[in-house]
From TrEMBL:
GO molecular-function terms, A-Z: transferase activity
Organism: Hassallia byssoidea VB512170
Protein name stated in the entry: Nucleotidyltransferase family protein
InterPro entries: NT_sf, NTP_transf_5
Keywords: Transferase
């Protein structure tokens, strides 16, 4: 299958600061000679290192930035900036190791109860697509189970010292788990400073209808720290990662880096299966937008046949232009509810999904008015 690829280019809608180009050039695990030379050249420019480090951290690209600079031109980076990056990198690696230990303990307890649990994003994703736990920036735990297992999962967490972020009565809890606006039940362990989110679907129903039950018959075994745990197939991960990023209007470039690494490191992806999955769940345009953005920002090769389908949807390019404008703003922009709402409606290709999102938005508005009236 032929592929469409391009080197990093300064999209007219993306901030053209050298720090931004340097960050995007470093946001990968494999760097060819041409890109390495460009990184060396950029490091010699008048780089605002504090801006670069803060931006990398905000976009969850700090580990990739450090890893690339360390391999290519560590001596050219000012000592203070390099030491700061190294400390942040090591702290992130230690945190991920700590979270992995907690995750394995929880998965073991769930297994004893006969509950199949899927680690969602986080440390398992870092191992699966980066091949190195330290190269992905994350701060909490996400675990998916089928909806009927959520309350038993809750009991396991309570026994380990976790407490729910919101206090619900049994009747409120049942309504919460049935609500199409909800997708996770969050618990916090104060002593360990760990937030764990129990997911039974990947996003609120108005964003995407994929639930745990839709994935369970396709789970694959995955080796993680000497044990075998369930994991998603590559063909399921791609649309799911795109749904997650799109739900937040791609406010974090690190989510695109995840998709980019998945594609680069797994050339055997069954693209027809990926597109069929996205068609089934009404998230084809969401998938196409994610693929367009990883090509535009990170130079990822997209199969020609897939690229042609992406370009055939004119909304994708338009949506990408609006998203790119907000990746690296010079000033903090106020939260724009209307912009986000319009985006969420446009990014869905089926009328029924557009109407579902609009219905949820109007419900949120009424709730907000009642709260402040």
């Amino acid at each position: 299958m032929k592929t469409f690829s391009k080197p990093y280019t300064k999209n007219q809608n993306i901030n053209t600061r050298p720090e931004v180009e340097l960050l995007l050039s470093c946001a990968r695990t494999q760097i060819d000679d041409e890109r390495a030379q460009r990184i060396k050249s950029l490091v010699k420019e008048d780089i605002d290192w504090q801006y670069l480090i803060a931006t990398a951290y905000r976009h969850k690209l700090m580990p990739l930035l450090y890893n690339s600079l360390n391999k290519i031109c560590a001596n050219a980076v000012p000592n203070e900036a390099f030491n700061q990056l190294r400390e942040l990198f090591q702290r992130n690696a230690q945190r991920n190791l700590f979270l992995s230990g907690e995750l394995l303990k929880i998965l073991g307890l769930l297994k004893e109860r006969g509950i199949v649990a899927l680690p969602y994003k986080g440390q398992v994703l870092a191992t699966a697509i980066y091949g190195n736990l330290a190269l992905r920036q994350s701060g909490d735990l996400d675990v998916m189970v089928q909806q009927p297992d959520v309350l038993e999962f809750k009991e396991v967490l309570l026994s380990l010292g976790y407490q729910p972020e919101i206090k619900l009565t049994p009747s409120q809890e049942r309504a919460f788990l049935q609500a199409k606006t909800e997708h996770s039940y969050n618990f916090f362990n104060q002593d360990k400073a760990i937030l764990l989110e129990i997911h039974w679907r990947i996003a609120p129903k108005y964003t995407c209808p994929i639930e745990a039950k839709d994935l369970w018959d396709k789970l694959e075994p995955f080796a993680f720290f000497g044990t075998t745990i369930p994991n998603l197939s590559l063909e399921d991960w791609l649309p799911i990662l795109c749904v997650h990023g799109s739900r937040h209007r791609w406010e974090v470039v690190g989510w695109l880096a995840d998709i980019a690494e998945l594609i680069r490191n797994h050339p055997g992806i069954n693209w027809e299966k990926v597109i069929a999955q996205s068609n089934k769940f009404g998230c084809r345009r969401i998938l196409f937008l994610g693929l367009f953005l990883v090509n535009e920002l990170l130079g990822v090769s997209i199969p020609t046949e897939v690229w042609q389908r992406i370009k055939a949807d004119s909304e994708v390019t338009s949506l990408a232009d609006s998203v790119c404008k907000d990746f690296f703003p010079e000033t903090d922009a106020p939260e724009r509810f209307l912009t986000t709402t319009i985006y969420q409606i446009r990014v869905r290709e089926r009328l029924q999904d557009k109407l579902l999102y609009l219905e949820s938005f109007l419900l949120w508005l009424r709730t907000r008015e009642n709260t402040f009236s």
